[in-house]
Every structure is written in C-alpha cells, then in structure tokens.
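Notebook entry, structure prediction.
Reason for the run: the old model in the group folder had no record of what sequence produced it. Starting over properly, with the input documented here first.
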Amino acid sequence: MTTESAGVRFRPATDADVPAAYMVFRRSLADYLARIGMGDPSMAEDSAIATAWASQRPWMEHLVTTAGEHWVAIDDHGAIVGWALSVETDGLLELAMFFVEPGVQARGIGRGLLELAFPIARGRHRAIIATLDPRALGLYLRFGVSHQTIAADFVVRPRASELETDLDIVRLQPGGVGPEAVAAIEFALTGHRRPMDHAFLADLRPSWVARRAGEAVGFAYGATPGGYSAGPIAALEARDLPALLAVVENDAAAQMTEEFAFTVPLSATVAVDHLLSRGAKIDPFYILILADGPWLKADRWILTGPGFVI
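New structure, fully documented this time:
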C-alpha cells in the first residue's frame, strides 16, 4: 500500500528503513530543542546520531516488533523524510514515533503520517507521549486524545539509603516468577496488559516486585548499568512509591551509576515529594501525556524511560 500527499509518498516501513528513519527522528528532535533554546547543534551530526543509535537500537527493534502501524514518508529522491510508528497491545494504541525531517515540516506530511499510523477508529484506548511542540500538539489533539498530565525527568545522583517499609521487595530474574503479578498491577493501573513490553524490559533492566502480606502491590524496573533511564514503576497505593524508588536508587548506587532519571507525572505527588527530598533535579524538557480519557492512574505510575511508551 502506498499513498501520496504534496509530492511525498507514504508506504509501510520495512526493517531496512529503520536506521534512516531514526536519523529523521534525531534531526527532528535536535531542531525542536534548538527552537526552545535547549539545542546542542552537535546532536544533529551523523556521529552523534550513530552513538545514540548504538544505545537505543534495542528499543527501536522492540518498537518495530510490537508495531500496530509503521509508516514512512518518501520524497521524490527516495529519501525518508517522515516516520510514524504506533504500538498496539491489549487494545491500547500508543503513538511511539512521529517525526518529520526539518525543512519539510508544515507541508501536510505529519497529518498524512498520523492518519495512517494513528487512525481515529483504532484502539480501545489511545495514548501519546508528546513534546510541547505546538505544531505537533495541534495535530495530536485532532486524533482523539486530550491532555491528562505533564511529566518531567527527575535526575538523580544515586546514593544508598536505608529502606523503611513493611513491603517485601524481591528482585526478579528473567524468565522467573513474577510476570503474572506485574501484569495484574499494570492492569489495575492502566486497564491493559503488555506482556511483550515486560519480557523486553526484564531482559534489559533489573526489576523487582513488592508484596505486602503475600499480595503483590507494586513493581519497579531500574536503570541498566551505565544507562540513563529507568521505569516503569507502579504501586497500587501511592504511599508505596518511595520504597520502590529507593530500591532502584540503591541498585544504581551499587552499580556506581553517576546519574539517571525517573520520568514522573507531576500528578504523582508522593513520588515527586520523595525525589525532591532526595535532591533530584528537574530537567527542563517536559512531556505531555495525552490519552482518550483518564484511564491511566498517573498518580501511582512512573513512566517507562526513554519516553516512547507509557
């Protein structure tokens, strides 16, 4: 299937398209950061993109594996100038990638990609983790989502602390016991189960499940040694988030991680208060959580970092 708009062709993406599409993503992100005064021109250089690709390639491959829709926009010379990918699991459609090459934006390419990758009638529920770019936001709000909360990266320089909790927090092993408990907690807080995401994360990051009186009440994914992002972290009761955050921070401190970030909805006030009390710094790059309703209990949910999916 191939469609056209304003001299640009849209077609389903292939695995071979992903490296070039990723370059569009990084150049578009660098352009946005420059427009809001946070830009580092070196971000758009091929060497910087290659470094980022080496780090994020497992994520890109996972997103492609779980894609519900995956499209690219092609110009007259056959170059990829736009990329959109949505992931779909258990009725949840999330727009994970949506980027247009700087210099060809505002020509209808974005709308064409969204119509293909995030169709209005698709999904029992719909979500987008969005930047504050007004051009993209103006499109998103026409596709069946609205503002739910804002989130920010809380950057931590980890140091060990004593845990004061009645929770029994056990580290999970890939392929071991625990996935059913994680799935049940996720369903309680989001209304969806994402087993492929959790299988991927369990191989990528350390993880824990928390129990009280034998019942699973929370889970956490930490930071990969040397990595920057953690999450998701979830608790049936907000009061249990500090203990889960502390477990992740203690593990990062043991791994001699210099710093890493939790991506926290600002409505998760218990987590926010805990992290600020620990000296976390708020990165000025904010994101919006857009969805088709308040089904995400964001006061008890720390996002999956980096911000491709909830």
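Summary: DSSP finds eight helices and 14 strands in the chain.
The old model has been moved to the deprecated folder.
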